[in-house]
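Cross-posted from the bioinformatics board.
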Amino acid sequence: MNGAESLLSTLTNSGIDVCFTNPGTSEMHFVAALDEVEGMRCVLCLFEGVISGAADGYARMARKPASTLLHLGPGLGNALANVHNAKKGCVPMVNIVGDHATYHLHYDAPLTSDIEGIAGPVSHWVHTSEAPEHIARDAAEAIRQAGSHRIATLMLPADVSWGENPAGAEPAVSIGAPAKVSTERIAEAAIRLRSGKNCMIMMGGGTEVTLERGHKASQIAEACGAQLCTDVFPTRVARGEGTAMIERLPYLAEMAVDRLKDVEELILIGAKSPVSFFAYPDVPSAIAPPSCEHFVLAENEDDIDQALESLIAALDAGETPPRIHELALCDAPRGDLDANTAAMAIAHHLPQDAVIVDEAITSGIAVAPMTATARRHDWLNQTGGSIGWGLSAAVGAAIACPQRKVVCLEGDGSAMYTIQALWTMAREELDVTVVIFNNRKYSILELEFARTGARGGVPGPKAASMLDIGKPNMDFVAMATGMGVKATRASTAEEFSAQFAGAMKENGPRLIDAQVPSLSG
Amino acid sequence: MNGAESLLSTLTNSGIDVCFTNPGTSEMHFVAALDEVEGMRCVLCLFEGVISGAADGYARMARKPASTLLHLGPGLGNALANVHNAKKGCVPMVNIVGDHATYHLHYDAPLTSDIEGIAGPVSHWVHTSEAPEHIARDAAEAIRQAGSHRIATLMLPADVSWGENPAGAEPAVSIGAPAKVSTERIAEAAIRLRSGKNCMIMMGGGTEVTLERGHKASQIAEACGAQLCTDVFPTRVARGEGTAMIERLPYLAEMAVDRLKDVEELILIGAKSPVSFFAYPDVPSAIAPPSCEHFVLAENEDDIDQALESLIAALDAGETPPRIHELALCDAPRGDLDANTAAMAIAHHLPQDAVIVDEAITSGIAVAPMTATARRHDWLNQTGGSIGWGLSAAVGAAIACPQRKVVCLEGDGSAMYTIQALWTMAREELDVTVVIFNNRKYSILELEFARTGARGGVPGPKAASMLDIGKPNMDFVAMATGMGVKATRASTAEEFSAQFAGAMKENGPRLIDAQVPSLSG
């Protein structure tokens, strides 16, 4: 087999059987190999930002990495922002980046660039395969390096792809088991939780907050009188009926600082010590008070379930019941459509086992509290702060979980970053309902402008025009239709509720252009 | 004034008075400064790929750099592909990349990344400003480093932006004059051109082929019996009535190799020795035969006009007339709409002083030959091979030249990379007519698949599906309308011709969704 075929077989042998791509000339042998090697589902995206966002959403829901196939340095550059988001969310990804043939590089053709240089800042592991007989081994190493939480980026020169590899593919790579948390660490956590101090257990980061983990953490918190929360943007959280009551740290640093001001001891599970998303004049970067002690019970790559179980045993908390949400659905809303009534409709109609992909920024603020007691669902957050993630992540989540309804909550501004994702939803007939909160503003930036105190917090006319995306207004119904996705516009709560309910009952991609006011009206 | 204000003043003092941006929280003080400092036109784009593409198109037509304002590492990542294209085209750009406050970096907030690392591969100069009192000096250095052909990327931490800078702004930066080409080099060129060998003068690269330069090069070629051509993708070329007849090297390496097989001496002006765009099994990377001598008359940064004038003097070619295109318009086409009839209509109706931005790939192949004798126009090529440049470059060209009609020729696949550019065309009421050659294929990749010889040159069904963007078909009329751009669909040559003629007579953004067959039908 040639290098491309041995690469492809090595990926599928390890269960990496989805590849998001937009290939170019240097990747044609990889593309050709799709018809020679069984078992790889290759998903075409019209822009590489969609590719990396989809790989992120896929990995979170499939609990294994997807591969991406990217076209040289610029293709990786286009993917970079969503690789960054995945890296910050500790989501694994195996990027394959095509390059010119090794002997062609020194001619400095138009698409030649320092691909390793571009890959470095967003990858944990970077490697260029140098010969066809190395590519299977290199791919296996990429899979091992990606593991369950990391970004591995492997460059595939065209001649490595088309050259013969007599050695063939590598067998399945075994990913190391997560590290056990030591008895000493468990004992120390127990002492701290029983110290009588004001303790808070903080979960999240790249550690999935599953139903079971939430229950165990709640048992621990209840047994010790500790508080329990997640950080602002945990990668994945099980929510709704039957899940534990877990607070979420507020986004606004001012509010988060106030929330933590009396906390004396933070017990961290996956989450890192919370910091302000941005710096602001006269606002501290660290959220917890300087006197607060931090204790890391477990990092993302540790055995979280074992840590929780051991701690429950150490605290003798096995009989303590967790605090659980019971089902309590919002009423279907009436009247004006706004962030609150839209949230009510979503909470009311959300079906069992839905996956919510949240990049709705300011307009989505009411959805999380209102869905806390909705039917059981998983919630994926934007982990790296680079907008343009949601639509793409929804593509990946839907491919990972074809039996579950994916609901993608998007701001109008963030939707426009990777709007091309809609086409892949249509092409792959994915069961995604996209809600665009169309408020014709970068509403978050109006808030942030005030928070930075620039110009006394009040934008002048030129600054205000940079925050305003309503001239011209964007018509997402037209754009979605243009990419093959059925779409409707909702201007009242009743319209939105009916359209959302309808979308929950149907299968396939659907977009609702929800006309909502911005924070500033 | 604060750092942001001194930065802004330093830019405008040096005539950098356009900034393409999509700012975020870390850039709010820069945004605020727009209302405090006179003279900066700030153009909002919905995605950073549009920003850098627009800065490229602007600089080519304005003959001075634009600035960009980008949001941390991911914002720069989104811009990266079109910065790459500009770098390969030797187009100057001054990128300002906001970052977290210096003291906030070590907290590793979600948007923290190695921005210098991302910037390095696509910049000639990278620097992080470390204090408010440095920012004006650093900005002046960025302008100097960008000069007329380079990429300068300056990181602006938020506290450098909001801190006080008592020193204020820097005065206008003087860009060094281009280097004179030595008498010895001119004499050597004259000897080579008069050697009796088969000589070819090749212009292009980042060197603009102006009307005057074309005439002079043609005089030289005529006086010496040399051939005259440009490389495949020169950055900017004056074409049409009254311009010199200058051949263009073919894109296909096989054809280019054949074209140059008898050339014994290449005289290079701006252009580099031609190389194959990609590597293919059994196709040479270098286009010129191994025996061909190369002589660099002038590099991009040299004084091209002086070099040509001196060479004319050395050859005593001042009286030799250049070979000039006379006006000869194609007939308006009738019948089926395809690459040829669309090109005829464009050539027939193109108004005087139009600017053609070409990213039409396979479908645009007939436009260049047919417009060779059209009314005078400038032609901008895609210089770095990363698709998603055209619509964005058209935005910048239209802002640089508000009195000229910009015609953007786009493939459907490449259009989707930065489709968000349409919104900025509508918002700024730019006089751009976009022609989408909608053939529902990555047609170039069908050709490239065959050229690479993968799977015997014949894609299997899975490979074929990766080259097919017609499931679902994209409706560019709907998408453009959704972003506020008037749009029509053309399915016959008569419809296209009438719509294009109408667009040429009107002012403002307009899109034509031209339904054409792909190369493979």
